[in-house]
C-alpha cells in the first residue's frame, strides 16, 4: 500500500479514531480533533462504510481493506466492540492521488444501548456520507434486512433531500453475508451471490387486492430505486470458534482458504469499483468539504429534523426476533440430521451433537435478533430447541428399540426352527436349549455393543 506520506503525522492515518460519538442524553457529538485532521486531506475521498447488526464481524472486513488484521476493534464477546462512527484513512491502494476513508459503524441492535433512534442515526449518517455502503449480516438474507434498508433509505432520503442538489446521495450497496452455509440453488439451478440477492428483491404478483403484496413490493421497489448499483458477497466461516476469539492475532494461513479467497475478491472489488464521494454534481469530496457535509447532517439530526422511528424499529425488531428464532430452530434440525444418523451409536453422540448445534444456532440468533433486551425470544428459542431435541431423543430411542428387536428376532430364528422341529424334545434337550439361549444373548450383546445400540 502507498505510504501516508505527508499525512503520516495524522493519527487518523495511523489507526482508527472515533469521529462521531455519543454525548450526554444519547446525542451525537463530533470529535473536533479528529475532524480537524480529516479537514487536512486535500485529495479526493473514496468513502467506504460498513454497517449491520452488532457482533457480525464488520470491523474485520474494514481491517482487511486497510491491509491489517488489527485496527478497528474486534470483539470476541456478545457485546458490541465499536461505539459510534469510527474513521481510518489510507492512501488509495489502486488509485494514486486519492485517499480511502473507512467508516466503521456501531453495531445495530445492541441491547445495552436502549435508544433505537440512535441505530437509525448512525446507519443514516454512514449511508449519506459514504460512496460505498457494505451491509454485513450473518448467515441469511432475511426480510428484516429488506425492511431495515427500506426504513433507513427513507430516513436518508428525507435528510438528503434538504440539500438543494441534484447529486444522488445514495451509495453503491454491497451485501456481505457472513458464515454463509446455504447452497446457492434457485429453481434447481446454481446461482451467483448477486443472483441470490436480486432474487430476494423480486416482486410478488399483485392484483391489487392483497395489501401485504403491495407493501412487500413497495419495499423492494424503493430499495432498487435508492440502490441501483448492488453487489453481494458470501463468506465461509473463517475458522473454528475457538480461533475466532483471537482473530486479530492469527495468521492468514490459519484461516479457512475459501474465506481468504472470498475476502480477497471483496477487497479487490472495493478497490477497483468504489467511486469518489460527491458533495454536489461534479464536486468531489475532500477533507474539508466532507466534514462540512457530516456536520450539516449531524446538525439536522440534533435539531430534530428526523422524526422518531422508535415504534417502527421496535415493530421490526419483534418481527425479526421471531423470524430469527424460527430460522434458528429450522437450522438446528438441519444441522443435527446432517451431523448424526439416527439411531446414534451412543447417547453421548446425540448429546454432543446437540451441544455443538445449540452453540452454533444461538450465536447466529444473537447476530440477527434485534433489541431482545428482556431475552424473551432467546427464551422462546431455548424452549423450541429443547422440544426439537426431545423429539430427536424419542425418535432415537424408538429406532434403537426397533433395531434391537430386529437383531433379537434374527438371532432367535435358529432356536425357533429347532423348537418347531422338536430338537429340544429329548433327553438333554433343555440343556441344549439353555446353551442356545445363552449363545443368543452373547451374540446379541456383542452385536449391539459393536453397533452401540441398546
Our estimate of the beta-strand percent is: 5-15%
Distance between the amino and carboxyl termini: 63 Å
Helix content: 40-55%
Q: How many helical stretches? A: 13
Class per helix and strand makeup? alpha/beta
Rg, Cα atoms, Å: 29 Å
Domain GB1/RHD3-type G: 42-275
Keywords: GTP-binding, Hydrolase, Membrane, Nucleotide-binding, Transmembrane, Transmembrane helix
Transmembrane segments: 120-141
Pfam family, one: GBP
Task: Describe the structure concisely.
With 454 residues, the chain is an alpha/beta fold. It is built from 13 helices and 12 strands.
Task: Describe this protein with a few key phrases.
12 strands, eight-stranded mixed beta sheet, two-stranded antiparallel ribbon, Rossmann fold, 13 helices, elongated, 454 residues, Signaling Protein - Interferon-induced Guanylate-binding Protein 1, Chain A, domain 1, alpha/beta
Report what the structure shows.
The protein has 454 residues and is an alpha/beta fold. Helix content is 51%, strand content 13%. The chain has 13 helices and twelve strands. It has helices spanning 32-39, 58-65, 116-129, 143-160, 193-200, 211-226, 241-244, 257-273, 287-302, 310-339, 347-368, 376-421, 429-451; strands at 17-22, 28-30, 44-51, 85-91, 98-105, 132-138, 172-178, 185-186, 189-190, 230-234, 278-280, 283-284. An eight-stranded mixed beta sheet has the order 2-1-4-5-3-6-7-10, with helices on both faces. Strands 8-9 form a two-stranded antiparallel sheet. A two-stranded antiparallel sheet has the order 11-12. A hairpin with a 6-residue loop joins β4 and β5. α4 (143-160) crosses α6, α10 (310-339) runs antiparallel to α11 and α12 packs antiparallel against α13. Keywords: GTP-binding, Hydrolase, Membrane, Nucleotide-binding, Transmembrane, Transmembrane helix. One of its GO terms (molecular function) is hydrolase activity.
Amino acid at each position: 500500500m502507498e505510504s501516508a506520506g505527508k499525512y503520516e503525522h495524522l493519527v487518523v492515518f495511523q489507526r482508527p479514531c472515533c469521529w462521531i460519538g455519543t454525548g450526554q442524553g444519547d446525542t451525537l457529538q463530533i470529535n473536533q480533533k479528529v475532524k480537524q485532521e480529516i479537514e487536512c486531506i486535500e485529495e479526493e475521498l473514496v468513502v467506504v462504510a460498513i454497517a449491520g447488526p452488532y457482533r457480525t464481524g464488520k470491523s474485520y472486513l474494514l481491517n482487511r481493506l486497510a491491509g491489517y488484521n488489527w485496527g478497528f476493534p474486534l470483539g470476541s464477546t456478545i457485546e458490541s466492540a465499536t461505539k459510534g462512527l469510527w474513521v481510518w484513512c489510507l492512501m488509495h491502494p489502486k488509485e494514486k492521488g486519492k485517499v480511502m476513508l473507512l467508516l466503521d459503524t456501531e453495531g445495530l441492535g445492541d441491547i445495552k444501548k436502549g435508544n433505537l433512534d440512535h441505530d437509525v442515526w448512525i446507519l443514516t449518517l454512514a449511508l449519506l456520507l459514504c460512496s460505498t455502503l457494505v451491509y454485513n449480516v450473518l448467515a441469511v438474507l432475511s426480510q428484516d434486512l429488506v425492511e431495515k434498508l427500506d426504513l433507513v433509505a427513507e430516513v436518508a432520503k428525507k435528510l438528503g433531500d434538504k440539500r438543494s442538489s441534484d447529486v444522488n446521495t445514495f451509495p453503491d450497496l454491497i451485501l456481505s453475508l457472513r458464515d454463509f452455509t446455504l447452497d446457492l440453488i434457485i429453481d434447481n439451478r446454481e446461482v451467483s451471490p448477486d443472483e441470490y440477492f436480486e432474487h430476494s428483491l423480486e416482486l410478488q404478483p399483485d392484483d391489487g387486492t392483497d395489501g401485504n403484496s403491495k407493501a412487500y413490493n413497495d419495499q423492494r421497489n424503493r430499495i432498487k430505486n435508492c440502490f441501483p448499483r448492488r453487489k453481494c458477497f458470501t463468506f465461509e466461516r473463517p475458522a473454528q470458534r475457538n480461533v475466532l476469539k483471537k482473530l486479530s492475532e492469527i495468521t492468514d494461513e490459519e484461516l479457512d482458504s475459501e474465506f481468504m479467497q472470498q475476502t480477497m475478491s471483496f477487497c479487490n472489488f472495493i478497490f477497483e469499483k468504489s467511486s469518489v464521494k460527491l458533495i454536489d454534481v461534479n464536486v468531489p469530496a475532500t477533507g474539508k468539504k466532507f466534514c462540512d457535509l457530516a456536520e450539516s447532517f449531524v446538525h439536522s439530526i440534533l435539531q430534530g429534523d428526523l422524526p422518531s422511528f422508535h415504534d417502527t424499529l421496535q415493530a421490526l425488531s419483534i418481527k425479526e426476533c421471531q423470524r430469527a428464532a424460527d430460522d434458528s430452530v429450522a437450522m438446528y434440525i438441519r444441522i443435527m440430521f446432517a451431523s448424526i444418523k439416527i439411531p446414534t451409536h451412543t447417547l453421548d453422540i446425540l448429546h454432543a451433537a446437540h451441544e455443538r448445534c445449540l452453540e452454533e444456532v444461538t450465536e447466529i440468533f444473537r447476530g440477527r435478533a434485534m433489541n431482545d433486551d428482556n431475552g424473551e425470544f432467546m427464551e422462546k428459542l431455548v424452549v423450541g430447541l429443547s422440544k426439537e431435541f426431545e423429539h430427536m431423543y424419542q425418535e432415537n430411542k424408538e429406532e434403537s428399540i426397533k433395531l434391537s428387536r430386529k437383531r433379537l428376532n434374527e438371532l432367535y430364528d435358529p432356536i425357533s426352527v429347532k423348537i418347531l422341529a422338536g430338537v429340544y424334545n429329548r433327553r438333554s434337550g433343555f440343556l441344549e436349549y439353555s446353551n442356545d439361549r445363552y449363545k443368543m444373548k452373547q451374540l446379541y450383546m456383542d452385536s449391539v455393543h459393536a453397533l452401540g445400540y441398546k
